Amino acid sequence: MVSSSVSEFLSKYFVCNYFLLMTVDVLLVWCGLAVIAKFELIILLSAIIISLNKLRNQTTRMDLFIIFFSISIAIASLSNIYPQAFWFEGVRYQLFSIIFFFVGESSTSKDWDFFDKSIIPVLVVCFIGLILYITSPSWYVDFKLSGFTDNEGGRFLEMTRLSAFWTYPYWVSYGSGIIYFYLLFKSYKEGRITTKIAFALIFLAVIMVLAQQRAPIAFVALITLALLVNSLFNGQKRSFSTYVLFLLLILVCCISIVFSFLDQERLIFMLSKFESLIEGGNASFLKERTNIFSDFYSKKITFWGDGIGRYGHEAYYSGKMAITDQQYLKIMYETGYFGIICYSIFILLVVIRGIRNFKDNLFELGIIFFYLMAMTGANCLSVTGQHCIVFWFCCGRIFNKSCLTYKCTSCYSLQKD
């Protein structure tokens, strides 16, 4: 069996460099070197080794529960008759991602190394993406258009969204939301926002606005407001509220400046989209999302479901019935009542455990809340590009005793970033 030093090595150089290595992967694909773009696989193999080492040293009841329900779903799905490629996709991207729960539980994940190492890659990707978005060179427009198979309206919608090296903006917007919250959270813990962090927060907020995805924008707005209100009533954090209010004013100016560089057609389309979001509200959004998959309303939900991956993106590209943007609905129909019960129990236990040490688990609980909110309009536990591993990683950190000890005794300074 592997030693702890091997786990430390794999965690430090592969898992903690997730955002960097995933960016390298997509750049290799861009350069026509898809055959060697295997960092995603290397990260997964590293996570498996770290998980096995962790489970060998200590296996909790929560670990056994996760292993039981994951294997049960995979095996039960085989009893359904549907393409094996669909099953493989579901197991590979939805069930195997759960392995990162054990990585989060591991002693290799007790510190903030994963998130500290994610800051620069995300900022660099967003900066390059912003340049490509504003200048829109012809070769980049051709690349974006080559990834669309839907109608003209759908293509135009995606062309107005900032997505950097990806066809769709999920990688950029979700990554920006995660790093924005991380920087804001650690600044809140420190009681002040440095100039460097202030620029990063404003920049990431602009990127999320240009990516035009509701969940990240709503999340950062809510979490910023929550920390602002809390700091106003907390004498020790009052200076933090001053920084935040000042940042909000600068943010409005920055967004106005960026908008001035956009062509009129794109700007009108973006503004109409935000107007519909504000006027329609969450109820309208949920109704719209639910109606997309109205064909499933007549389908019966079984105890074991129709099979993991049956309604995923592989099914969509094969012209079959698919649920591409509603994780809750996908879990319901693919894994049935068994999956609903198991996922609900798991999330409930994680939240209860996190609330017990709310102040120290604030960041992890915030990320979990973000994904639970995003699951109403995206398959963010089934798609790598939506950073599903971060959700499971944060769940594991809540159950990581050495992580809790580290957070209770360490300083939250960001001076090294």
Shape label:
globular
Q: Which regions have little confidence, pLDDT < 50, spanning 5+ residues?
A: none
Overall number of domains: 1
Structural class: mainly alpha
State the total count of DSSP E strands.
0
Describe this structure in words.
This protein is mainly α. The protein has one domain (4-409). It is built from 19 helices and no strands. It starts with a helix and ends in an 8-residue tail after the last helix. GO terms for molecular function: ligase activity. Pfam families: Wzy_C (PF04932). Residues 199-343 form the O-antigen ligase-related domain.
Write a concise synopsis of the structure shown.
By secondary structure, the chain is mainly α.
Topology, element by element:
Elements: H1 4-15, H2 18-30, H3 39-57, H4 61-77, H5 84-95, H6 99-105, H7 113-135, H8 138-146, H9 152-159, H10 170-190, H11 195-211, H12 214-232, H13 238-260, H14 264-292, H15 313-317, H16 327-356, H17 362-374, H18 388-398, H19 401-409
Helix pairs in contact: 1-3, 2-7, 3-6, 4-16, 6-18, 7-10, 10-11, 10-12, 10-17, 11-13, 12-13, 12-17, 17-18
